[in-house]
Amino acid sequence: MKEKIKSVSVVGLGKLGLPLSAALASRGCHVVGIDSDSAKVQEFNQGKFCFEPQLEDCLTLGKERLSFTTDLNQLLQTDITFVIVPTPSMADGSFSIEYVEQALERIGNVLRQKNSFHVVSVVSTVLPGSMEVLKAVLEKKSGKRCGQSLGLCYNPAFIALGNVIHNFLNPDFILIGESDQESGETLEKLFIDFCTNAPAIHRMNFINAEITKISLNTYVTMKISFGNTLARICEQLPGADAEVVAKALGSDSRVGPKYLRGALGYGGPCFPRDNRAFSCMGRKVGIPAFSAEATDRVNEFQVTWLLSLVKSYAKKEDVIGLWGLSYKPDTDVIEESQGMKLAEALINDSHPVVVYDPVAMSNSQKILGNRVSYADSALDCLRQASVLVIMTPWKEFSRFEKNQADFYDGKQRLIIDCWQILKGDFSSSEMKHVVLGKTL
Ligand SMILES: NC(=O)c1ccc[n+]([C@@H]2O[C@H](COP(=O)([O-])OP(=O)(O)OC[C@H]3O[C@@H](n4cnc5c(N)ncnc54)[C@H](O)[C@@H]3O)[C@@H](O)[C@H]2O)c1
């Protein structure tokens, strides 16, 4: 095995690349963060960063070892370059590798000047077959062959926004697709030093790593959609409670408890598109991915169903309040979020809507504009609404107490708690409290 890796570069400082750079620096690596967006690099150099739990702590811990630049030549000072640039979804569900190709062309050109071994590791999500294309690009531009003074790996991250740093430092497993043994060993060594736990490390060829990456999220979303279907059925049966059922089901070791909780659909920048990409992968090889397609349909149904539930209680003029617009707690990302989807559906149905989210207000304002009103606080949102729907299980919402005096103002009101996060039954003469997953 090689010496301890001391120096790493990260190309693409987005939602993933910045936290990875900071986490690596906090663990003792010298890190050069490189992004083609000069305005972003300037902001980072001025100390302005996006919201992600633990990011600030890592930036502080790693301050002396972390720099940001637009200059790709700086990667020559490092041993490994992680590439984390976007791979946007195409109309057929596949991912474009255009930006990764561009990045590898430029990296290849720079690596022409380097004599010692350098590993390029693609973290961006790609579809099976892409890494062979990328290998040809890198070899052509660098004038080197993988396995000689150059190596290429596929090392996708299994992280959730809001937990990126924790997930980087404590992964269940590390996935490494490798062009050659030395590259895989180099990455393995880095992760052994970097991770605070002792994750399983799976090293394999490119195609198996590409299939593993895309399959994992597809399996998890299948479980979420199953849990949601179960919840919708429980809501229709007297005495049923999906949480009780899921707890028992999850204790079977073949099933496991995670992600089985029936609540709302999944969203965010990965789950929906990875699931569709899996279907696309199946179509490309002539095998229909029925389960992935059904997962997607179940997910699409959740907001349609929730809209009909709200409408069954609310009059047209009733103000509908939404608590939570981010696709999950601890992030300001609203991409494909259930809260944003319900807001759009309610607006299309001509309902007045008031929204509140602890951190995603400014992102949602860019999309919803003046079509909704924005509450100053969760309580303000509740007070303005006749029907309140809890869309994201932020901790802040779970702190409301039934006996809190300011919660009740005499107005008749309905709360739909999609995540069973309110403690106890809030029902009273002026409040109807509906909990998803339980008999409606
Ligand atoms: N965000 C997630 O939760 C998540 C999770 C797992 C995997 N991924 C994958 O990681 C990849 C990146 O995702 P993200 O959310 O961090 O993207 P992002 O859009 O937040 O950030 C991408 C960054 O790359 C930069 N960039 C683009 N081309 C570049 C180039 N040629 N050179 C240098 N910088 C360049 C952009 O300026 C931007 O700062 C995608 O493939 C995504 O599927 C994301």
Description:
The model has no long low-confidence stretch (mean pLDDT 95). The protein is elongated and about 75 Å long. The protein has 15 helices and 14 strands. It is an alpha/beta fold and 440 residues long. 41% of the residues lie in helices and 14% in strands. Helix 4 (98-111) runs parallel beside helix 5.
Notable characteristics:
six-stranded parallel beta sheet; 2 domains; alpha/beta; 440 residues; elongated; binds nicotinamide-adenine-dinucleotide; Rossmann fold; eight-stranded mixed beta sheet
Short description:
By secondary structure, the protein is α/β, with parallel strands linked by helices. 41% of the residues lie in helices and 14% in strands. It contains 15 helices and 14 strands.
User: Spans of 5+ residues with little confidence (pLDDT < 50)?
Assistant: none
Tally of individual helices: 15
Strand residue percentage: 5-15%
**So what's the CATH class of the largest domain?**
Alpha Beta
End-to-end separation in angstroms reads 60 Å
Looking at CATH, the homologous superfamily of the largest domain is NAD(P)-binding Rossmann-like Domain
Overall average residue pLDDT: 95
Bound molecules: nicotinamide-adenine-dinucleotide
Find the structural class using helix and strand composition. alpha/beta
CATH architecture of the largest domain: 3-Layer(aba) Sandwich
Biggest sheet statistics: 8 strands, mixed
CATH topology grouping of the largest domain: Rossmann fold
The number of distinct β-strands equals 14
